[in-house]
Amino acid sequence: MSAQRTALRTCPLCEATCGLEITLRPRADGSEEVVRIRGDRDDVFSRGFICPKGSTLGQLHDDPDRIRQPLIRDAAGHLVEATWTQAWAVVDRGLNGVIERHGRDAVALFFGNPAAHNLGPMLYLRHLVKALGSPHLYSASTLDQRPKEIAAALMFGSNATVPVPDVDRTDFLLVLGANPSVSNGSLATAPDWPGRLKALRARGGKLVVVDPRRSRTAELADQWIPIRPGTDAHLLAAMTHLLFEEELIDLGTVADWVTGVDEVRAAVADVTPESAAALTGIPAATIRALARDLAAANTAAVYGRIGT
């Protein structure tokens, strides 16, 4: 029996894509068991960071309750093990029966996170969607990030062009309705947010968190601005109003690629910091200072989540 070995892999559980150092030991039956999982300290992206989920992949893989072959219900309604042929026959009867009785609109699909981190679903789900012909498609994205995807599609032409904050090079980071220190920042793709935020401040940058609740991320910030729930749009519109009012907008090299600036100016013309203050609960002076700080920063980013 050979000695244990180390495998370097990427965690498949979320978009942070942390590097894993997995120690494996051979079993008598020829398989391998996970002895230890820790963050890969040489990974250029995650630098050894790992969350509790990634560290327990071994337990997940060897969980005695893990389903390892298809289960179908017998005549008494009990789940029993079956072959793939038997399982697909059940799917065929059930799915086609629904479509025949009620049409394709009666079918809906929900895709979980693993669909985006596994080659099989990435290749074949689109064919399943097309074959079913149902418009009712739901996923972790529709629950977690669809507004940002739609905004990106309208602005840049594709929902795959979602901008992410360059946390490692930002001098000023404004976070709205997000708690990446806990959730690891979906649509940000950055392992170890707490460490990166601390590094931002250590190099002289500023972190501002706008959130009704003093979150874990807010506790790391230079400034926490509590806001009345549901009024983020008023705050952002008032900030934009001030940027126009004080002529702090400079399109620079992207001027030839930007349209609709006059429409935005007109849309926020009446949303002054004073009017927004009454709705958001944030003093007008704070709104003005926030907009000015954002404009004055050498490099800045605004990061929001579905709550905004």
Mind explaining what this structure looks like?
- By secondary structure, the chain is α/β, with parallel strands linked by helices.
- α10 packs antiparallel against α12 and α12 crosses α13 (284-296).
- It is globular.
- The chain contains 13 helices and 11 strands.
- Strands 10-9-8-11 form a 4-stranded parallel sheet. Strands 1-2-3 form a 3-stranded antiparallel sheet.
- Helix content is 39%, strand content 18%.
- The chain has helices spanning 52-55, 57-62, 84-102, 119-132, 140-144, 146-156, 180-183, 193-202, 216-220, 232-245, 261-267, 273-280, 284-296; strands at 5-10, 19-26, 32-39, 71-73, 79-81, 108-111, 136-139, 172-176, 206-210, 223-225, 300-304.
- β6 (108-111), α4 and β7 form a beta-alpha-beta unit.
Write the layout of secondary structure elements.
Blueprint: E1 5-10, E2 19-26, E3 32-39, H1 52-55, H2 57-62, E4 71-73, E5 79-81, H3 84-102, E6 108-111, H4 119-132, E7 136-139, H5 140-144, H6 146-156, E8 172-176, H7 180-183, H8 193-202, E9 206-210, H9 216-220, E10 223-225, H10 232-245, H11 261-267, H12 273-280, H13 284-296, E11 300-304
Helix pairs in contact: 10-12, 10-13, 12-13
